[in-house]
Design brief:
The chain is mainly alpha-helical. The protein contains 14 helices and no strands. The protein has helices at 5-22, 27-34, 37-47, 57-88, 109-122, 135-157, 166-184, 196-225, 228-245, 256-261, 263-281, 286-296, 298-320, 342-379. The longest helix is centred in the last third of the chain and has 38 residues, at 342-379. It is globular, with a radius of gyration of 22 Å. The two termini are 39 Å apart. The mean pLDDT is 94.
């Protein structure tokens, strides 16, 4: 499929919003962002789902393993390996932790082994204070494969004339399961955190696939009338009202009321972001290039943005004269977070440092490859 820069820009905006929310931006802004930013990632993933995988399941699973499971395992094991070392050098400590007062501790040898097993077998066991966003890898991995399985089952069991409505039936099924789950407080014991995020992720993944079928028509309508920004603003206002009066997000402990409050603002938040991205995509310039680049490299921001925050935390500690151990705060230093503008610096660092490290790694890798090629050519 041809690269879709609009979707890349969507993902770029979404990952920036995630970094802003994790940086403890003003409360009203965080609530607004949480309404739709994680569903947006599932929707954009579903956008690229292809029916060809109904007859080529192996390729789809391999793609998911390579793009989601393997990066999760690789980096979870890396952070597991350095966890105790982070205590030795002071990055983590048992005095300062998350907003709720929870802290993390050094692992015993037994805990390290158990976490390793959890990482490999259940996509759990990751370091909560260094890998706080890693649940998304498991959520999308499970949601996308579950979507393929249900699609194949419905295709095999339903009459052929029902094939066009299968995507809608899957989304309806996921909503009904999530309603049952949250109403009764049930858990899928075989999935870390109980499965709510995975099931809702499957719903939003399906919404992305459905939207793909109408994307050209939708784009033609808003393009013909030139209402990219106006519709984006209107959708944004509705999402803001939900965030103020019917707050919801993809919290794994969501209540039935929070579940009911999520789908509408999440979908409208996607459309808001998509419309704005369409407008940006139509105007060549640095903004389009920057957001598309960020959107094509969200993996590195997911993995390293919390570590990148620590650079700004050092600055904040110096600025306010705080206890140096507050660098262990998760995800950022909580003191003065709702009064100052350090969340802007956290955002710049959370996006910029991972991308800068990736760029340097790519430059070094290309240089090494070039040197090897030059050496091989001279040898011949």
């Amino acid at each position: 499929m041809k690269r879709n820069t609009t979707i890349s820009i969507c993902k770029g905006i979404a990952i920036i919003l995630m970094v802003i929310a994790h940086a403890e931006a003003p409360g009203w802004l965080c609530k607004f962002i949480f309404e739709f930013h994680m569903p947006l990632f599932f929707i954009t993933a579903g956008y690229f789902f292809s029916l060809k995988y109904l007859n080529d399941e192996a390729s789809f699973v391999k793609k998911r393993v390579k793009g989601l499971y393997w990066p999760f395992v690789k980096w979870s094991v890396f952070f597991l390996t350095i966890h105790n070392w982070m205590f030795d050098i002071g990055i983590l400590n048992e005095r300062y932790g998350n907003e709720m007062g929870g802290v993390t501790h050094p692992y015993s040898w037994h805990q390290i082994q158990q976490n390793l097993w959890n990482i490999v077998t259940a996509m759990g066991g990751y370091d909560q204070f260094l890998c706080g966003a890693f649940w998304f890898f498991r959520g999308l991995f499970v949601a996308s494969i579950l979507y393929l399985i249900i699609y194949k089952l419905m295709d095999a069991c339903l009459p052929k004339k029902a094939f066009p409505i299968i995507p809608y039936l899957i989304c309806l099924l996921m909503l009904l399961l999530c309603a049952w789950k949250t109403f009764e407080g049930l858990k899928i014991v075989t999935l870390v955190q109980g499965g709510y995020r995975d099931l809702m992720g499957c719903f939003f993944f399906g919404c992305g696939f459905i939207f793909r079928q109408f994307a050209d028509r939708y784009q033609a309508i808003i393009s013909r009338h030139g209402i990219y920004l106006w519709t984006g603003i209107i959708f944004g206002i509705v999402v803001f009202l939900f965030s103020k009066y019917l707050t919801a997000n993809m919290n794994w402990r969501s209540t039935f009321t929070q579940f009911l409050s999520l789908p509408i603002p999440a979908l409208l938040g996607f459309l808001m972001t998509y419309n704005i991205s369409q407008w940006i995509d139509r105007h060549e310039g640095w903004l389009k290039q920057a957001l598309a680049y960020i959107g094509d490299h969200t993996l590195y921001i997911f993995i390293f943005h919390i570590c990148a925050y620590k650079v700004v935390s050092l600055w904040k500690i110096w600025y306010y004269g705080l206890d140096i151990r507050q660098i262990g705060c998760h995800m950022v230093i909580h003191e003065y977070s709702q009064e100052d503008w350090f969340w802007v610096a956290y955002t710049i660092a959370g996006v910029g440092i991972p991308l800068a490290l990736y760029w340097l790694q790519e430059k070094l890798s290309n240089k090494i490859k070039g040197d090897r090629a030059s050496t091989a050519a001279q040898a011949h």
